Amino acid sequence: MSTLEIKGLHVEIEGKEILKGVDLTINTNEIHAVMGPNGTGKSTLASAIMGHPKYEITAGTVTLDGEDVLEMEVDERAKAGLFLAMQYPSEISGVTNADFLRSAINAQREEGDEVSLMKFIRELDSKMDTLEMDQDMAQRYLNEGFSGGEKKRNEILQLMMLKPKFAVLDEIDSGLDIDALKVVSNGINEMRGENFGCLIITHYQRLLNYITPDHVHVMMQGRVVKSGGPELAQKLEAQGYDWIKEELGIEDETVGQEA
Ligand SMILES: Nc1ncnc2c1ncn2[C@@H]1O[C@H](COP(=O)(O)OP(=O)(O)O)[C@@H](O)[C@H]1O
Ligand SMILES: [Mg+2]
User: Which residues contact 73 (CB under 8 A, 6 or more apart)?
Assistant: First the structure.
């Protein structure tokens, strides 16, 4: 079993404190969901874990099986088994999807132990089948001209091919129609198992109708303020976030806009 542990994490963006002490422990074989209103720092948490240079860690720790993740370069984090699907995936012109994936897989392996082309193609075909993606998507430039839904499927394709120990999926459901949502959920569910842990960040509960999380956390004003089981997500869907504010006596400060 592997463990990703976030302790007392404080993060600033351009001098403004966004995360004010986040605690979260995720084991492999577990799916955690982080929910919360817009502007509470969910994407900031994802970016900080993955080492986005804009996010300054001012206190706290992130460790993977005791190893200090914050000390690692971004590529070392990937090599250690962390994967981030971003809310807004970037486009890379001139690099095909298939080439990108194969380089990313090989970057995680030792020199001389590269994946064979045949094996790679076979696996790519099968994962693209699961995700109901057109085969020609493999030869298109990375994310260039992809629709919102295609980008999200492509992120899950990367996840399935790279097989990280831990994935952080930020708003992977945004902009997906119901069919795409099911397909993407199937892909994530297929990953479930002893060697995989997942943090799903979502504003809406609907994704969690297809992927049942083991633990649900509510983030507000830069902290995890409440944790529970899948029923917590259902309650949030039905009743919104106000009852939590009341329960915890949180002042209704204006929540920031979504970045
Ligand atoms: N790159 C940035 N520069 C300045 N402020 C940012 C940046 N990213 C996020 N913020 C601010 O940080 C707060 C939290 O944003 P974010 O983590 O995106 O929230 P969430 O994902 O929960 O909607 C917001 O007030 C947002 O405006
Ligand atoms: Mg966000």
Answer: 51
Q: How far is the CA of 108 from the centre of ligand 1 (A)?
A: 30
Cα angle 160, 165, 169; round to 5: 65
Q: For 74-102, what is each residue's pLDDT tens digit?
A: 888 988 999 987 766 777 778 898 998 99
- The answer to whether 36 and 200 are in contact (CB under 8 A) is no
pLDDT, tens digit (0-9, with 9 covering 90-100), for 48-63: 998 888 999 999 999 9
Nearest to 176 by CA among 145, 210, 142, 213: 210
Binding pocket residue ranges, ligand 1, CB within 6 Å: 13-14, 18, 36, 38-44, 54, 256-259
User: What's the CA-to-centroid distance between 74 and ligand 1, angstroms?
Assistant: 20
User: How far is the CA of 63 from the CAs of 60, 77, 130, in angstroms?
Assistant: 10, 11, 32
Q: Which atom of ligand 1 is nearest to the CA of 256?
A: 25
Nearest CA to ligand 1 atom 11: 259
Residue in the structure block whose two tokens are 């693209």: 128
Radius of gyration (C-alpha) of the chain in whole angstroms? 18
- CA distance readout (Å), 211 to 9, 178, 196, 231, 238: 27, 13, 14, 13, 18
- Best CA proximity match to 169, nearest among 134, 130, 213, 133: 213
Distances (CA, A) of 78 to 42, 53, 185: 20, 15, 22
Query: Which ligand lies nearest the alpha carbon of 173?
Result: 2
Tokens of 218: 């509510």
Q: What is the rounded distance in angstroms from the CA atom of residue 90 to the CA atom of residue 123?
A: 24
Indicate which residue's Cα is closest to atom 16 of ligand 1: 41
